[in-house]
Amino acid sequence: MPWFAIEADHVQDEEIRHAADRLLQEARARLGRELKRVLLLPPDLTRAHSGSGWITEYLYNALPDAHVEVIPTLGQHIPHTEAENKWMFGSIPNERIFEHDWRNGCTRVGVIPAELVAESTAGAADWEIPVDLNSKLIEERWDLIINVGHVVPHEVLGFANHNKNYYIGLGGKDTICASHIAAAVYGIENNLGCLVTPLRACYNWSEARHLQDLPDVYFQIVMHRDMQNRLVTSGIYVGDDLETYLQAARRSRDQNITVFDKPVKKIVAVMQADEFRATWVANKAVYRTRMAIADGGELLIIAPGVERFGEQPEVDALIRKYGYKGTPRTLALYKTEPDMQEIPHGVAHLIHSSSEGRFTITYAPGHLSREEVEQVGYAYADLDAMTRRYDPSFMKEGWNTMPDGEEVFYISTPSAGLWCTADKLKIPGRRDLSNELF
Length: 438
Description:
Rossmann fold, 2-enoyl-CoA Hydratase, Chain A, domain 1, 2 domains, 6-stranded mixed sheet
């Protein structure tokens, strides 16, 4: 069972600080030792809006007599600069914040068998998933490991956080690649908003067998929009078991999924410049709205910070070469093209980011040209023109009618939720394994 949980329409910052203090007190009592070496595992800056940065800073400063280190759970995202660390984590010394090296800084702790992967995905994927995790996490001795993060609908694992922090956030190249392509071939719309997806079921199996000796705890945050339409914390869930995650995910499912009776013709989504600089992360706007958009409709993404496609040069080159041009084409190429086979997680991104020709994805980026955007299969719009027309200072969250009569649904923080039609939640391929044991 969870250690404790706090739920309210708005959990105030002071209550969050008290929850962090209580976590440390409970950890000392449950583990029966002083906390001399503590590892903090927050998300990267693409989830800064959750408050995870200042919470991590608070936990660091609440342990003045301990040796505390921080590893942002980047996965294969680009590492933070020193300035970005300061922006997100405040007073934590930069020398105590370590980059996750997903290529060369991991240790193998086990393997998720191909048979289990095939069983959980109903045969869509039939390969093993190596479990390679950050060497600092695995090889150094820690008195306590605290995972801090935001539970919100997610395209690969149904909901983000919990052991995603380990297997993706601190995973090695082989783990990330095998995982992402498994989730992609199973189907992004079969994953979004499910409490336990096939891939998460595999991770749960591995966590119980490969990570059972880690002295860890999860500090999970759920957010929603209050009566004033502000994004605020509505739940804190602290514990070291699966039920802690499930409680948080159920709260997120209830609060973070917007369900429409009929598909939406046009959605306008804004991706903040200080968090989203590549389509790799800005395409959360595609992932989280695709189940709401009508056939022949349009998703307009206003992304003033976007300057590239991939987080790494080789992924950027892959996207530029092959584009977001549909699952059948992408999987056919994957069978024959060595550069695709070298980075399957990039192939998964190409699949997740395509509308499959069903609707138009239009990008208004800050630093990419029309030619670059159209080359990858998207439509292009001028950033200044779109910002003037859909001015964030005037648009309201949800439905807006423009002066010329155009009706659009406006989303200021697509990464904080999921938007879909009721019918999409009932598609036959969706398989929630939360009641099955693996």
